[in-house]
Write the C-alpha cells for this entry.
Amino acid sequence: MLTIVDYGVGNLASIRNMLKKIGVEALISSKAEDILAADKLILPGVGAFDTCAEKLQQSGLLETLEQKVIKEKTPVLGVCVGMQLLTEGSEEGKLPGLGWIKGKIVRFNQGKLPSSFKIPHMGWTEVKLNKQSKLFNEMFEEPRFYFVHSYHPVLDNAADALVTADYGYSFVAGMEHNNIMGVQFHPEKSHKFGMKLLENFVKYY
Amino acid sequence: MKRVRVIPVLLLQKGGLVKSIKFKDHKYVGDPINAVKIFNEKEVDEIVVLDISATEEKRPPNIAQVKDIASEAFMPLAYGGGITRLEEIKELITSGAEKVVLNTAAYKNPALITEGAKWVGSQSIVVSIDVKKNLWGKYKVYVQNGSKPIDTELIAYARQAEAAGAGEIFLNAIDRDGTFEGYDEDLIRLVSSAVNIPVVAIGGAGHIQDFTKAVHKGASAVAAGSLFVFQRPHRAVLISYPSQQDLKEKFFKEL
C-alpha cells in the first residue's frame, strides 16, 4: 500500500488523482498505523519551508517516519517542499529538515539570473538525468516537468543528485539516495512525464 | 531553451463552456469536462477555468464541478469565479485546483488576497485584472466580468495586488477579447514593468507570433481563449493547441 503522508499541507488530491489514473489506490493519511503499514510513502509539501517543517513536527509522525524510512528502508518520494524536507535545512527558515540527505536548500541567486528570469521559477522545464535511476525507466523523450519554487537544493554529495534543470543556471531538481528520493517539481501536474515517474516509483521500488 | 507557459482559458456560464468577444456575445462552445480532457490529451502547460456568471448570480464556486475538472487535469489548474471567502479558497485548493483566481473579490476585499496567500502561498493566488481603454484612450480597470469600472488607477491597482500577496497577475485586455488582433502590447509593457510578479497576458492572441511579442513586452506567460477553441474564419468550434515542435520553433527559439 502506498500512503501519502497528510501532515496538513499541500494539494493531496492531485497526487491521488494521478495515481488513480495509473491504477494505484493510494491512502491519504495522518495516522501512524497507516504509515507503518505502507510499503511506499509520498511526502508532499507546498508553501514555506518552516510552515511545512513545523506542521510535520506537530503531526507527531517524525519517529514513525524515521522508523519506516531509516530503519525499515521503505521507499519514500518527497515532492516540492516535501523533497526539501529530506535535506538538513533551508535558507528560507530556521527549523531543521529531516537530514536524510546531506545538503541544504538555498534561494535562487537573482544576481546570476538574467533580468527576465523572475523568482519564483514557475513553469515547465526539461530535466537532465545525472545518474541511472529506475524512476526514469522508459521515460519519454525530453522529459519536462512543472515547477513552482524559489529555492533549490545544494547537495553535499554530487552522487545524490538525480536530475538537474536549467533556470538561468543549472540546479539540482531531484535527489536519490538508496530508498530516499525527492523531486523539486510536481510529477502529479506534469502529464505523461510525471505519470511515468510515479508509475516507476510504484513499480520498481 | 527557456520555455514560456502557454495557457488555454475556459469560460463557464451556467455550467456550459462559452467564449466571448469583448466580454459580450457569448457563444456556446461545449461541455467543460470534455474540453479539459481534450486539453489534457494535448498536454497543455496549464489551464485556467473561469466561471463568469458566478459573481453576477451571487453564487459561490461550484466545488463538485471543480473536483470533476481536477480529476481530468494532469496539469496545473487555476479556478476563478464567485470566490468571496477564505474557506472557498481552501476548499478549491483541497479539491485539486493549484491556483485560485480573484477578480471582483480582489477589489472589494483585498485582505482576501493576503489571507489566501498566507494559507496556501502566493504562488497559488492569481489576481485577474480586466482592462479597457476609455474614450480618451486611458486604461481603466473593470470588475464584475467587465461590467463595472473602478476608480483605482491601473498601475496602482496592480501594485496593490502585488503588495497584498498576489503571486501572479492575469492581465486581460477587454477590447481585444475574442478579436484575434493580437495582445495589447502597451498594456503588457505598462503593467509588467510596474510589478515584480509574473504577468500573464490574455486578450487578442491570433497566432503563435503574438506570444513572442507579448513576452518581449514583459509577459511571463501567455494565455488565450478563442485561439484554442475556434477555427477561423467562421469561429467553428475546434479545440486546438500548438504542438511542441511549433512551440519550440516558432516561439521559444524567438525569445
Residues 154-164 of chain B form the longest helix (11 residues). Residues 60 and 83 of chain B are 6 Å apart (CA to CA).
